[in-house]
From TrEMBL:
The lineage of its organism: Eukaryota, Metazoa, Ecdysozoa, Arthropoda, Crustacea. It comes from the Eukaryota. Residues 1-14 have a biased composition (Acidic residues). Residues 1-29 are annotated as: Disordered. This is Uncharacterized protein. Residues 15-29 have a biased composition (Polar residues).
Length: 372
């Protein structure tokens, strides 16, 4: 048996029997973990732990028990501290006010059985376990589940999911899709304002843009990259994903990209935008993009030694950056888009997968096949 008595009595049903009712402002708020006394499972079921406290939350299994309610309408669980069962005992005995039902004898027999069971008394407590106790915690975790797995919001109203949540946290309420739709919109607006505020502090940024089709629907996505002025670390964030409801024409893409830049107030901060080899992106930036500042090496008149006369040199910038070729150069006087860059990784991937197979040299092809 524990040194704490089951007969301790105090006013608050959920109060800690091991602490005084006198306020102690100088006392530390961190409690030292103690050995957990098991509570009879035939009378109570554990529904969670109290963060930062040596206590657990229980739900009474008595058929006639009417649980207390919180302000939001959810059930208020019973707090039982690990060092004493007195809260659970008093709650259980309240169901036998006249002592005619023999609840005292039932409690004593159940506790005696627990104390004689070494395996139950020595069950370790997981101090790192995260438990859903508050209604706000449940709402946040459900919304996180929907976002991470990209699930439709009506998932919260499916019978299987509702049964799962009710089994795990029977004392809390699972809201419907209207609630989570509003919560998602609120979270989106908060994050959008946070991103705008962070970008206001930056001076230079660049973006990566892509368009794709999924399940018969087309989308445009843009990610922005910048350096944090305080930590000097590179930051990245999604500016947005927009549905393309019309044809993938260059002017439609231009309008969508411009709207994103205006929404996040980064029009004057962007120094470049990287895309794949899509012709619609090429034309969009050729018509509305800023001119490239990549130097052209074609007019380089630097002296070369005699040993180099018979050698051909190709600048990697000339190969990978098609903007220095005349047909891709932008001469817009008032550009609305930043300077365009083609994705180097995408180009190298195309070369490795497609163009390299077109080299007719048999020795090269033999060498290539021997390394694949």
């Amino acid at each position: 048996m524990s040194g704490a008595s089951d007969n301790d009595d105090f006013d608050d049903e959920n109060a800690n029997p091991n602490t005084s009712h006198v306020s102690q402002p100088n006392a530390s708020s961190t409690e030292i973990p103690v050995k957990k006394l098991a509570v009879p499972a035939e009378f109570f079921t554990c529904v969670g732990e109290v963060p930062g406290k040596n206590a657990s939350l229980y739900r009474c299994l008595h058929p006639g028990c009417v649980p207390k309610k919180k302000r939001d309408g959810s059930e208020k669980p019973l707090v039982v501290y690990h060092s004493s069962r007195c809260n659970a005992k008093r709650h259980f005995l309240n169901h036998d006010p006249t002592k005619d039902l023999g609840h005292m004898k039932l409690w004593e027999d159940a506790v005696k059985h627990l104390d004689n069971s070494t395996s139950l008394n020595n069950t370790p407590i997981s101090v790192n376990r995260r438990v859903i106790i508050l209604q706000e915690d449940l709402d946040n975790w459900v919304l996180n589940f929907l976002i991470v797995d990209v699930l439709p919001i009506y998932t919260v109203e499916k019978p299987g999911f509702k049964q799962l949540v009710h089994t795990l946290v029977p004392n809390l309420v699972l809201h419907g899709r209207t609630f989570f739709t509003n919560k998602l919109e609120t979270m989106y607006n908060e994050r959008r304002l946070q991103l705008i505020d962070a970008l206001r502090k930056s001076t230079d940024a660049a973006t990566t843009i892509d368009a794709w089709t999924s399940r018969g629907k087309a989308y445009l996505g843009e990610t922005i990259h910048w350096f944090d002025g305080e930590s000097l670390k590179r930051r990245s964030a999604c500016l947005g994903i927009r549905r393309i409801k019309e044809r993938h024409t260059y002017d439609g893409l231009t309008t969508m990209i411009e709207d994103l830049h205006k929404e996040y107030e980064v029009v004057d901060k962007l120094r470049g935008a990287t895309t794949d080899n899509g012709s619609n992106f090429f034309k969009a930036f050729r018509e509305s993009g800023d001119a490239s500042d990549v130097p052209s090496y074609e007019d380089d008149d630097s002296e070369q030694s005699d040993e180099e006369d018979n050698m051909l040199y190709f600048e990697i910038g000339n190969i990978l950056d098609a903007r220095i070729r005349q047909e891709y150069v932008s001469n817009n006087v008032n550009p609305t888009l930043p300077m365009h860059r083609k994705c180097t990784c995408y180009l190298l991937s195309l070369i490795a997968k497609a163009d390299i197979s077109k080299i007719p040299d048999p020795i090269f092809q033999k060498l290539r096949n021997s390394t694949t």
